[in-house]
Write a sequence for this structure.
């Protein structure tokens, strides 16, 4: 009876491990979806509201989840504190500070770091073209990640359950 209870606990642990790894893949994809939403919102806000950039970022930070909320709030605060600063450099510095909170692929993080360049253009058309190019690159990365994650999820589940099954065999 004790071996049966131990076997059940081992298989439950294997299931939990498989779920945790699969959830990690899903979390990275969700962050990329939120980043795509951020790019879309920035594009519409730049086109239609035309409010000062610190106010725009502070307003957007209230409506987005972490880590984007922290990045936008920090950029807004730094812009108000240091009016002469290089905006893309401020954006990049803020993104680098929150780098550990991202679970996205490196390509998506690179797109995030370059997104601050949108604010450096004086031409509205140049900013919109850069935003659209960033969205296209991110969509390609998301598609690639989605295709890879299906195989990885299956691999994680197989490995975790196989490890659990082998442990149960050794227990019995």
């Amino acid at each position: 009876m004790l071996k049966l209870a131990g076997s059940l606990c081992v298989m439950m642990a294997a299931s939990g491990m498989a779920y945790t790894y699969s959830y990690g893949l899903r979390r990275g994809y969700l962050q990329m979806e939120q980043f795509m939403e951020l790019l879309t919102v920035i594009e519409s806000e730049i086109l239609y509201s035309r409010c000062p950039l610190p106010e725009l970022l502070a307003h957007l930070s209230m409506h987005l989840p972490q880590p984007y909320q922290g990045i936008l709030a920090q950029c807004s605060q730094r812009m108000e504190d240091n009016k002469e600063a290089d905006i893309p450099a401020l954006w990049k510095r803020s993104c680098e500070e929150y780098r550990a909170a991202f679970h996205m692929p490196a390509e998506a993080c690179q797109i995030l770091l370059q997104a601050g360049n949108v604010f450096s253009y004086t031409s509205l058309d140049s900013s919109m073209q850069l935003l659209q190019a960033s969205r296209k690159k991110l969509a390609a990365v998301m598609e690639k990640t989605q295709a890879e994650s299906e195989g990885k999820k299956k691999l994680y589940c197989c490995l975790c359950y196989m490890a659990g099954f082998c442990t149960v065999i050794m227990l019995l």
User: Anything to note?
Assistant: Helices lie at 2-48, 53-61, 68-81, 87-97, 106-114, 124-171. The radius of gyration is 22 Å. Residues 13 and 164 are 8 Å apart (CA to CA).
